[in-house]
Structure formats: C-alpha cells, structure tokens
Design goal:
about 200 residues; alpha/beta; Rossmann fold; 6-stranded parallel β-sheet; 7 helices; 6 strands; about 15% strand
C-alpha cells in the first residue's frame, strides 16, 4: 500500500475473491469513493473466501496481478496482498484489525455487496465498531439492512465473476465485462480456459 494520506484519511476496504475482477467491482469502488469522499480504496484479494467454495479459484498472485492491472490508472485505487500473505481463511475482521493498527487515525469503510449481508460474519459486533460497513445493492438482492450498515446506491450492472469464468470456458467473449488491462492478461495467459476467450 502507498503512504498514508495526511490528516485523517478515509479508506475504503474492498475485499473479495476477484476471480476475476470485473467492471461491477470497479463501479462499486468508484461509486463508494465519490459518495463517501474516500481518499483511497484498497482492493484486497482473499486467500480463501469464507463464504464461497474455493474450487476454480485462480492462485492468489494471479488474481492480485489482475486487480493491479485493472486499477493501475486510478490514482485513488491500490491493491494489497495482506490476506494472501496471512494465508488461511480470509476473515474481514482480521484484515480490519490489521489495518486499524497500521492506520490508527483513519476512518475505515468496509465495502460489501448487499448479498453478503445474508451470511454469518465472524465477530460482526467488533467489526461494526472498528469500521463502517457499507452495502451496495446488487441485482436480485433485497436484504434488509441493519442499523449498523450504511447503504450505497449505485448503478446496477448484472455482472458476476462466475458467469465470466463460464464464458471463458465456453470460448465466449468477455469484452466489456472486465477492464481492458485485465482482459489482455486473461487472453495472453489463457486464464480460466485453454482458449483465453475473445
């Protein structure tokens, strides 16, 4: 991560498998950056996601490289390998605790999709004390927000990493679903499929 901004920085924490990162992820991050006046949004690929099967999960360093490629042109977006280095199951509370120690003066905002509110979170009460949980609506989700969660209204893009992987495995195009730089890496290395997609 880059040096801490001066003053009391407002930091968005955006974790996920990013398998692969897509335009919906970037739109959520940019919408949050603007709506919450964030100084920085930190993209954190999980090592092992606690609420998803890990089958078909691209190795962490490759997913991190895709994230770095996708956000390289945005001055307020950075990537962190904190969860990849920690190994084991990637719980948000562990990451937030670490960032709170590193950035004691920062205001932390944990960015999640609204669909993730229906799962059980480790140490939820402590998590909501250490940071503000911000939930962005996703197509087809109508989860009721708790008083401890801030809602983020954003344009809806019905894009899912699982669909992108299926498209690649079928040799279909993923153009305009993923950022161009990430798209090039996926094609060049044939990630997720032998053909690499169009």
């Amino acid at each position: 991560m880059s040096a801490e901004p001066t003053g009391d920085p407002r930091i968005g924490i955006f974790g996920g498998s990013f398998n692969p990162i897509h335009l919906g992820h970037l739109l959520l991050a940019e919408t949050a950056r603007e709506a919450l006046a964030l100084d920085r949004v930190v993209f954190i690929p999980t090592h092992l996601p606690p609420h998803k099967a890990s089958a078909g999960l691209l190795p962490g360093p490759l997913r991190l490289e895709l994230v770095q490629a996708a956000i390289q042109d945005h001055p307020s977006f950075v990537a962190s390998d904190i969860e990849l280095q920690r190994k084991g199951t990637s719980y948000s509370i562990d990451t937030v605790r670490s960032l709170r120690q590193q950035l004691p003066r920062a205001k932390l905002f944990l960015l999640v999709g609204q669909d993730m509110l229906s799962v059980k979170w480790k140490d939820w009460d402590e998590l909501t004390k250490l940071c503000t949980v911000v939930a962005a609506g996703r197509p087809g989700t109508r989860a009721r927000l708790s008083p401890k969660v801030k809602r983020l209204d954003m344009p809806q893009l019905d894009i899912a990493s699982s669909d992108i992987r299926k498209r690649l495995q079928a040799g279909r195009s993923i153009r305009y679903l993923v950022p161009p730089a990430a798209h090039r890496l996926i094609r060049q290395r044939g990630l997720y499929s032998k053909q690499g997609g169009a």
